[in-house]
Amino acid sequence: MDPHMLDGNAVAGLLQEVFAAEMTTAIGRCGNCGATEAIGAVRVFRGAGVVLRCPHCDNALAILVMRGDDIWISLSGVRGLTISRS
């Protein structure tokens, strides 16, 4: 076994810190056109779920689907996300 490998419990605190951050000011990079924008500036479409789209190329950046107490999140259209810790 690789001594550097841990399971997901090792990053629980970091993930809690990241996902409790102010997300409207987080900067996302579009996986299609490479543009960067604050999450507060993307286009949001609501229907059976929520779709966040790039305001430059209309690429689907993220999809969120709420079901009961669960939220399914896909960030497949985001190349990177910068979240300020301050």
Explain the overall architecture.
By secondary structure, the chain is mainly beta. The chain has a domain at 24-79. The protein is 9% helix and 38% strand. It contains one helix and seven strands, in the order αβββββββ. A four-stranded antiparallel sheet has the order 3-4-5-6, with no helix packed on it.
Structure summary:
The chain is built from one helix and seven strands; from the N terminus they run H-E-E-E-E-E-E-E. It has one helix at 12-19; strands spanning 27-30, 36-38, 43-46, 50-53, 60-67, 70-74, 78-82.
Features:
86 residues, four-stranded antiparallel β-sheet, mainly beta, 38% strand, single chain
Count every helix, treating DSSP H or I runs of 4 or more residues as helices.
1
Unreliable spans are none
Helix content: under 10%
Structural class, judged by helices and strands?
mainly beta
Percentage of residues in DSSP E strands: 35-45%
